[in-house]
């Protein structure tokens, strides 16, 4: 089972069955219920998590308690963020959104895997670079765009990552249990502003949403929303 999961994770593409089996021997299978923390910011960064099933979100919290830098993860993603770069503690808190399973490996063992397999180390660099670029893009978006543009950009990014075809022609269903607080953290605004923006986008026929789902109905219109 662990080998099948590793085969689905981009970091390990190209490794032989024997190599995957060797890595799999270092892994521990764990699971969390919705709302449980996978790891908490500030805790010693002793492990890396390879998501096998379910969904999780990671966020940072300001001294005033506001959540920022929200990101979402699905099967095949690696959790732990920039702690791979030598940080002593997790810089984010990761929480399961639904029942979630992951393979956990000790940080020291993961470093040994990277030393033994340069392709894995290069893959880690790609993941870290991508997340840094996404964080910079979010900062620029929050600094120069309207709340509507920021909320729309967040919804479109989630649709690209977690979307599946919806019931209506051209619609994309985002399969994440999003809250207004989640969207507020992504857009760098308040939950109240997100609620007003979502209502306006819904009246315009650009999106629809329910208790645990959101659908993009008009991608072109959402891109142009101001």
From TrEMBL:
<dbReference type="InterPro" id="IPR018490">
    <property type="entry name" value="cNMP-bd_dom_sf"/>
</dbReference>
<protein>
    <submittedName>
        <fullName>Crp/Fnr family transcriptional regulator</fullName>
    </submittedName>
</protein>
<dbReference type="GO" id="GO:0005829">
    <property type="term" value="C:cytosol"/>
</dbReference>
<dbReference type="InterPro" id="IPR050397">
    <property type="entry name" value="Env_Response_Regulators"/>
</dbReference>
<dbReference type="Pfam" id="PF13545">
    <property type="entry name" value="HTH_Crp_2"/>
</dbReference>
<keyword id="KW-0805">Transcription regulation</keyword>
<dbReference type="InterPro" id="IPR012318">
    <property type="entry name" value="HTH_CRP"/>
</dbReference>
<dbReference type="InterPro" id="IPR000595">
    <property type="entry name" value="cNMP-bd_dom"/>
</dbReference>
<keyword id="KW-0238">DNA-binding</keyword>
<dbReference type="Pfam" id="PF00027">
    <property type="entry name" value="cNMP_binding"/>
</dbReference>
<dbReference type="InterPro" id="IPR036390">
    <property type="entry name" value="WH_DNA-bd_sf"/>
</dbReference>
<dbReference type="GO" id="GO:0003700">
    <property type="term" value="F:DNA-binding transcription factor activity"/>
</dbReference>
<dbReference type="InterPro" id="IPR036388">
    <property type="entry name" value="WH-like_DNA-bd_sf"/>
</dbReference>
<feature type="domain" description="HTH crp-type">
    <location>
        <begin position="145"/>
        <end position="220"/>
    </location>
</feature>
<keyword id="KW-0804">Transcription</keyword>
<feature type="domain" description="Cyclic nucleotide-binding">
    <location>
        <begin position="11"/>
        <end position="114"/>
    </location>
</feature>
<dbReference type="GO" id="GO:0003677">
    <property type="term" value="F:DNA binding"/>
</dbReference>
<dbReference type="InterPro" id="IPR014710">
    <property type="entry name" value="RmlC-like_jellyroll"/>
</dbReference>
């Amino acid at each position: 089972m662990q080998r099948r999961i590793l085969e689905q994770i981009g970091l390990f593409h190209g490794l032989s069955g024997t190599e995957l089996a060797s890595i799999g021997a270092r892994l521990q299978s764990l699971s969390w219920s919705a709302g449980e923390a996978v790891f908490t910011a500030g805790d010693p960064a002793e492990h890396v998590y390879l998501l096998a099933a379910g969904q999780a979100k990671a966020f940072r919290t300001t001294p005033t308690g506001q959540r920022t830098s929200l990101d979402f993860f699905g099967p095949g993603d690696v959790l732990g963020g920039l702690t791979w770069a030598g940080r002593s503690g997790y810089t984010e808190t990761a929480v399961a959104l639904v029942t979630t399973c992951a393979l956990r490996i000790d940080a020291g063992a993961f470093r040994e895997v990277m030393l033994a397999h340069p392709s894995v180390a290069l893959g880690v660099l790609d993941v870290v670079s991508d997340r840094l670029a996404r964080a910079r893009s979010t900062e620029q978006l929050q600094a120069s765009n309207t709340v509507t543009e920021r909320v729309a950009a967040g919804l479109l990014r989630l649709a690209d990552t977690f979307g599946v075809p919806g019931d209506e022609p051209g619609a994309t269903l985002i399969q994440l249990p999003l809250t207004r607080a989640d969207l507020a953290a992504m857009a760098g605004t308040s939950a109240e502003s997100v609620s007003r923006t979502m209502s306006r986008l819904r009246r315009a026929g650009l999106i629809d949403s329910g208790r645990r789902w959101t659908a993009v109905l008009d991608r072109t219109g959402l891109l142009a929303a101001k």
